[in-house]
Amino acid sequence: MNYKISDKAKKVTLGVAIVGLVLLVIGFFQQKEFVYANKIDNHSVEIKYNGHADQDAQNALKESITSKLADYEIEIHDANHGHNEHATNDESHGHHGPTFLWNIHFKHAENHSSLIGTHESGADILIDKVNNGEISFFDNGFRRFWSNLLVNGFFFFGIALGALFYLALHYATESGWGVVLLRIFEGIMSAMPIGIGVLLVVFLAGSVGAHHIYPWMDSDLLDPNSPHFDPIIYGKKAYLNLPFFWIRVVAYFTTFYLFLKWFKKKSKEQDEIGGTESHFKMYRRGALFLVFFAVFSSTMSWDFIMSIDTHWFSTLFGWYVFSGIWLSGMIMVMMITLYLRKGGFLPNVNESHIHDVGKWMFALSFLWSYLWFSQFMLIWYSNIPEEVIYFTERIENYKLLFFGTFIVNFFFPMVFFMSRDTKRSAGFLIVIGLIIFIGHWFDVFNMVMPGTLFDQWEIGLLEIGMFLMFLGVFVYTVLNAISKSPLLQKNHPFLEESKHHEY
After folding, report:
1. Looking at residue 466, what is its pLDDT?
2. What is the separation of C-alpha 331 from the centre of its chain, rounded to a whole number of angstroms?
3. Of 22, 24, 327, 443, which has the fewest beta carbons less than 10 angstroms from its beta carbon?
4. Which of 331, 319, 320, 323 is nearest to 361 (CA)?
C-alpha cells in the first residue's frame, strides 16, 4: 500500500511551520535586552542596557567588569543620574529601573603589568569582553537566536539520526517484528539533511566570528600573548581547533548521509528484485554503521554540545546525549506510525507492534534517566570545582527547567508506561509521547543555553516560533519522503513473521 500525503496533512504541517516562522520573526525583533558597548575614546566606554536589571544584577555586572579589568583603574558613572561610582568601592549603587546607561572611564590607557608592551587600550579590551560574552548577563550579538538555532538543529538532526541508528540495529540483529515499520524509519531519517544544513550554518558562523557560542573558536583565547588568553582552553587546543573540528564535522555528516542513502537504495532494490542478497548486504552494512556510530555519537556530542562549556567535561556525556537522541527518534516513529495506522495505511501493524514501540520508549526513558542521575550524582558527590560548576550554573539559574526536565522524562514513563495496557493504547502513547518529546527538547535547551545565554534565558516567541517552524518542516519532509515508496517492504525475508507478530 502506498501513502500519498493529503492536502490536510500539507496544510497542517506547513501551517505550523508558517505560524512558527511568524512567531520567530516577531520574537527576533522583540529582543530588547541587549547591552551595547560603545567606545568613546581610549579612556572611555559607554555601556547601555535596554531591559530589566535589578540592583543585584547591576552590581554583579560591575563586579564582573572590575574583576576582568583588574589591571586598570576605572570609574563607573551613572549617566542617567550623574552619580559617580568608583569601581573599587564595594558600596556602589546602580540605577534602579528598566534601563541604565553607564560611562566607564579608564584613568590610564595602558595597564600596569600584563599589558605592558601592547597597544590595546582598556576600552578596546572592555568592548571585546562585552561582545564575546565574557562580561555579560544578557543576550548580545544575536546570541539568543544562534543558540536557539543550535538547539533545534541538533534536536531534529538527532531524531533523524536516532531513526537511522535503529534501522541499522534492526538489520544488524536481523530482527523480524519491526519489518512493517521499516519504511517509517526510512522516512524519518530522510529529514536528516535539514539538521545537517542548519548545524553547518551554525558552525560556519561561529568559525568566522558571527557568534561566540563556542569560546574555543576565539583565537585570542589561544594566544599566550593576548590579554584574553585562557590556559584551560589552550590546553585543549590539540582537539578543539578549527581545522580538526571541521575534519570531524565533515566525517560525521558524510558518514551518516552516505549510510542513509545506501540503506534507502538497497531497500528499494529489495522491493524490485527480492531474494536475500540485498538483505545480507544490509545486515553487514548495519553492523559496520554501528561501529562508526559507537565512536561518532560520543565525539559528536563533545564537539557540538559539550565544547560550549569548554572548561567542563564528563565521560558519560556522549552516552547521555545518545540516549536522548534514540528516545526522541523512537517517539517520532510512534507518532508517525499511529497517524498512518489511523488513516488505514498500515493494516499489518497490530497492537503487538504498538506495544513493542511503547516498550522501547519505556526502556529508553529509563536509560536516559539512569545516565542523567549517574552523571549528576557522581559529579555532585565528588564536588570537584571544575566539574560541579556545570550543574551549579544550571541549578542556580535554570532550577525549574533543570529538575523539571528530569521529572517529566522519568516520572511520566514510570507512571504511565509500567502497565501493559497503556503501552497498547494509542491515546496514552500520543499524550505521554508528546510530553516526553517536548521534555527532551528542553533537555537539549538545558545543555546549550547556560553556556551561551548564562542566566538571561527565557521561553518566548523566538523559542516557541523556532520550535514550531522546525517541527512543521520536519514532519512535512518525513511524510513526503514516506509517500515516495510503498509502506511495506514486500520482499523482506522476515515480512511474514512481522505480519503475524503477536505478543
Report:
1. 97
2. 17
3. 22
4. 331
DSSP helix/strand/coil, 378: helix
In the chain, where the domains are located: 7-28+141-495, 34-131
Q: In angstroms, rounded to a whole number, what is the distance separating the alpha carbons of residues 41 and 30? A: 31
pLDDT value at residue 49: 65
User: What is the structure's pLDDT at 31?
Assistant: 64
Do 373 and 319 touch, CB atoms closer than 8 A? no
Looking at residue 268, its pLDDT comes to 87
Give the single-character DSSP code of 310. T
326 in Cβ contact with 343 (< 8 Å)? no
Q: Which helix (H) or strand (E) holds 46?
A: strand 44-50
Return the pLDDT at 11. Answer: 94
Q: How far apart are CA 467 and CA 473, in angstroms?
A: 10
For CA atoms 238, 243, 248, 251, give the dihedral sign: negative
Q: Which residues in the chain come in under a pLDDT of 50?
A: 51, 82-98, 109-118, 139-141
**Interatomic CA distance for residues 253 and 296, integer angstroms:** 10
Q: Which of 209, 233, 215 is nearest to 142 (CA)?
A: 209
Q: What is the pLDDT of residue 292?
A: 93
Alpha-carbon 81 to chain mean position = 42
167 neighbors 256 (Cβ within 8 angstroms): no
Task: Please give the Cα distance from 270 to 265 (Å, whole number).
Answer: 9
CA distance 115 to 459: 41
Angle at the Cα of 418 (from 415 to 422), degrees rounded to 5?
90
The answer to whether residues 189 and 492 touch, using CB atoms and an 8 Å cutoff, is no
Q: Which amino acid is at 292?
A: F
Q: What are phi and psi of 350, to 5 degrees?
A: -110, -175
Are the beta carbons of 164 and 60 closer than 8 angstroms?
Answer: no
Phi, psi of 78 (to 5 degrees): -80, 105
Q: What is the CATH number of domain 34-131?
A: 2.60.40
Report pTM: 0.82
The pLDDT assigned to 290 comes to: 94
pLDDT of residue 126: 81
Supply angle C-alpha 176, 177, 180, rounded to 5.
Answer: 100
Q: Which grid coordinates belong to 127?
A: 568592548
Burial class (CB in 10 A: 0-12, 13-18, 19+), 225: exposed
Q: Backbone phi, then psi, for 224, in 5-degree steps?
A: -60, -20
Q: How far apart are CA 145 and CA 318, in angstroms?
A: 25
Q: What is the pLDDT of residue 124?
A: 82
Among residues 175, 62, 46, the alpha carbon closest in space to that of 123 is found at: 46
d(CA 85, CA 102): 10
User: Are residues 360 and 330 in contact, defined by beta-carbon separation less than 8 angstroms?
Assistant: yes
Q: Please give the C-alpha separations between residue 103 and each of 30, 51, 76, 322, in angstroms, as whole numbers.
A: 26, 18, 6, 48
Residue 326 grid coordinates: 534514540
